[in-house]
Write a structure and sequence with these properties.
It comes from Geosporobacter subterraneus DSM 17957. Helix content is about 75%, strand content about 0%. It is globular, with a radius of gyration of 23 Å.
Length: about 250
């Protein structure tokens, strides 16, 4: 009998190829997110520069905090010389939803992952990557796919921040100083379309304005710092909105 050649497949090598494919698939899936992140991150870098935030802090915020809305708010609070505890508390409130997103994703991750692995994947979850991962048809999410998805989004955000920070250095002083108002313009640009579409958001926004006005103009309350006024207003307005309106209304 003619002896047939038997090709032995290394199971570890085969598993490595599968992991690599899932990683690349995740990165390809996240390209659209990355494209959207870059201009926003550049804006963050420019605004940080205009607000007088040191380059190292702006870059570290994107590396360590990695939360777009919170970073913009933090820059605003830093520009107002707000205390660090107020900034930390505000960031915690804004990012509280990440507990829910992380808990939801963890139920679909393949079982048996170590805690460091889970922590790494949880760190990279954003609103956009969560939405994309949630639309995956597979009941169980491959951790390497999620890693690739998070990695390309994280890389784009940080690349944009670097570009914005160092692009801001090259801009004339007159342009840099005029960028200070862009942060408020951005928040107004985000709020107005949402408020026009949903009355509940408009009512909550007006309540926040009213509460902040009371805290600012009431005699005896001037001892409260600007940062704490923002924190108190955020908590009271969001709590009132959650109690008064249904989830569909928001």
């Amino acid at each position: 009998m003619k002896q047939e050649n038997i090709i032995k497949v290394n199971p570890n090598e085969d598993a490595g190829i599968k992991k690599g494919r899932q990683l690349i698939r995740g990165m390809k899936t996240g390209i659209s997110i990355a494209v959207g992140y870059i201009p926003i991150a550049i804006t963050f870098g420019l605004l940080s520069k205009a607000a007088g935030v040191p380059n190292a802090i702006s870059i570290m915020m994107s590396l360590v905090v990695y939360a777009g809305a919170s970073q913009f708010v933090a820059v605003n609070l830093l520009a107002l010389h707000t205390g660090y505890w107020e900034i930390l508390l505000t960031t915690f409130i804004l990012n509280f939803r990440h507990f829910l997103m992380g808990a939801s994703i963890s139920q679909r991750i393949e079982k048996g992952l170590s805690k460091p692995w889970m922590a790494l994947l949880a760190f990279g979850i954003t609103d956009e990557t969560f939405a994309v991962a949630s639309m995956e048809k597979e009941q169980q999410l491959n951790p390497w796919f999620l890693l690739g998805l998070n990695l390309i989004a994280f890389s784009a955000w940080n690349a944009g921040t670097w570009a914005g920070v160092f692009l801001g250095t090259a801009l004339p002083d007159s342009v840099q100083s005029s960028m200070g108002i862009a942060l408020y313009a951005m928040f107004i640009g985000l709020l107005v379309p949402a408020a026009r579409e949903k009355k509940a958001i408009f009512h909550i926004a007006m309540l926040a304005v009213l509460l902040h006005g009371i805290l600012h103009w009431t005699p005896g309350l001037e001892v409260i710092s600007t940062g704490w006024k923002i924190v108190i207003t955020t908590i009271l307005a969001s709590t009132a909105g959650a109690l008064i309106y249904t989830e569909e209304a928001l």
